[in-house]
Amino acid sequence: MNFLVPVAALALVSLPAIVLLYFLKVRRPEVRVATLMFWRPHVADRQANAPWQRLRPGLLLLLQLLAALLLALGLMRPGLIGAAGIASTTVVMIDASPSMEATDVKPSRFLAAVDRARSIAGQMKPGQEMAVILLGEHAQLLSPPTGDSQSLHAALDRARPGGTAGDFAEGVSLANSILAGKPGGSVQLISDGHSKPPSSPPRIAGEFTYLPVGASGENAGIETLSRSPSGSVFMRLANYGRGARELKVEMFADGHLVDVLPTRLEGNSTADLNWARLPAKTQLLEARLTPGDALAIDDSAWLVIAEPPKHSVLLVTSENGFLQRALALRTGLDVTTAKPGQEKAGRYDLYIYDGYLPPGKLAGPALLINPPSGGGPVPVGNQLDPGGVLPGNVRDPLLRDVSLKDVHVQSASALKEPPPGWRTVIGAAADPLLLVHDDEPKGAVMTFDLHHSDLPLRAAFPILTQNLLSYLLPGGFENQVFNPGQAVALAAEPDARVLEVTRPDGGKSRLTPPFPPFRDTLLTGVYTVRQELPGGSRLSHFVVQLQDPLMARIAPGAAPAIQQAPKPAGLLPRGTIEIWPWLVGIALALLAAEWVVYLRGR
């Protein structure tokens, strides 16, 4: 046995203090009587209470001393050491997928999951500990293993739902690291079954329990809202439930109701609508599906109609029709094309050099395609066969909606390792193929000639080009749509001094240079960005809304497939279990018994 708070042994001074109280002389009033024959017991008691007389043992004294001793030992927090004293560890994983915001379970699936985690924390016994993991786009450790219920409740207060499917495999990896060396641990997943499924069943180093939440799969939402070149608005509605729905789509132009479109959706079906009555000079369009249902975040969609300010782009190339057509797909670009060495001096928002590098210092931001060897911010070598094309990070925003499957590159410039400050977006078996520089001035380098690849022949190329333009151009976030919880890179004008972001609920955030990514995007709706410039201010917008139909299918799913890790063999490691609650309980019982004995004596 050991003591976690040895200094509490000072409480043992209460034992001699209690004995000393029994030695104190009792002062009684003086009364004249006829004889002492009938007062002998009282005389004996008077002699016993005289100072420094022989102490007469009694049941009250014994009970008081025992209670004081147990309370003092409890304050010292004694613990038993050995295999039986191992503290069991429970890892609770809470799914933060968007489907967990459904309200078929009150107040919502996510809040019900948090309340269930609170209940598990409240049921912990002495010697037990609990950790909390939030399954969002990445697994987040809200609380390390602890037996303090207040710390666990504080961690659960910070839990928020995300905008993408929770990564179950990453959560299992984090849970296994917590349970390493702790036999008897367990993992509990609170989910509606919509977390991101791993490629293969993960192995869990503990007993696994699936706690499902959710009761209904009835939900309808707006999958797509876009505007065609002719000016009409296209919508795709979806009914993810089994029953037919009578719905109305309310169209709001700059906050004013301008039209109502009735529609009927059969179960598990979609419907496409074209709306051509958009009022002139509309800046912002909202489509709202009524009546509402269990999942509100897909019942509304927004479309920014206002055109963003134009950006000037300098394209220096001998001839690249693929690149020119991809640039023409983006509205608001004023592209100046020049032959190598014939470009005119001037200030541009983006410089694109194809197979060429200008002399002197390179202006930025810049996109370099197949640069000559030996020069530029990323010195490259001779041409070689790069091998298979692979994404550097599948979660990179630059690769959003970009499929690199079956993309081939015949030759690329050799580059063994990216320079400091550069990261690989697209790689290959031998060398990187696309690198970007996140710090100012921003830049991107494509190490191969587009004509020596089949990438321009695939749908991935125009999408990749648009992503690069959004990344490199000032204000590339304007009029774009992002998922809830997704970080938005606010590419400001070069002379911007302050960015003020207004959320859909009216809350404001101020950012100063260097402008970090804006991460407070949990609310769906339109975000307004105001840039403070020397000549005034500039307003622009971006939209946050659910874009994953799989998350809108809210029918509760089954438990994820797992592999149970084998139990460790051999002797169990030693641990400590505290016994102070038992000591305090016995002390309270002794005090109650002492009170009963005292009353009976009276």
Describe the structure.
The protein has 602 residues and is of the alpha/beta class. It folds into 5 domains: 2-81 and 579-601, no CATH class; 87-215 and 556-571, von Willebrand factor, type A domain (Rossmann fold, 3-Layer(aba) Sandwich); 220-307, Immunoglobulins (Immunoglobulin-like, Sandwich); 311-472, Rossmann fold (3-Layer(aba) Sandwich), CATH 3.40.50.880; 481-544, Immunoglobulin-like, CATH 2.60.40. The strands form 8 sheets. The chain has an 8-stranded mixed sheet, with no helix packed on it. Strand 24 and strand 25 (443-446) form a beta hairpin. Mean pLDDT is 86; it is low at 569-574.
Please give a handful of descriptors for the protein shown.
Rossmann fold, 10 helices, 5 domains, Immunoglobulin-like, 602 residues, alpha/beta
Let me know the number of strands: 32
Question: Describe the biggest sheet?
Answer: 8 strands, mixed
Number of domains in the coordinates?
Answer: 5
N- to C-terminal separation? Answer: 41 Å
Helix-strand blueprint:
Layout: E1 2-3, H1 14-23, H2 40-48, H3 59-75, E2 78-82, E3 89-95, H4 109-122, E4 129-135, E5 139-146, H5 149-157, H6 168-179, E6 186-191, E7 203-204, E8 207-212, E9 220-227, E10 233-239, E11 245-253, E12 256-265, E13 269-275, E14 284-290, E15 300-304, E16 311-316, H7 321-328, E17 333-338, E18 350-354, E19 366-369, E20 383-384, E21 389-391, E22 412-413, E23 422-428, E24 434-437, E25 443-446, H8 460-472, E26 481-482, E27 498-502, E28 508-511, E29 525-533, E30 536-544, H9 549-552, E31 563-564, E32 575-578, H10 580-601
Parallel strand pairs: 3-4, 3-6, 6-8, 7-31, 16-17, 16-18, 18-19, 19-25, 26-30
Antiparallel strand pairs: 1-2, 2-32, 4-5, 9-10, 10-13, 11-12, 11-14, 14-15, 20-22, 21-23, 23-24, 24-25, 27-28, 27-29, 29-30
Helix pairs in contact: 1-3, 3-10, 4-5, 7-8
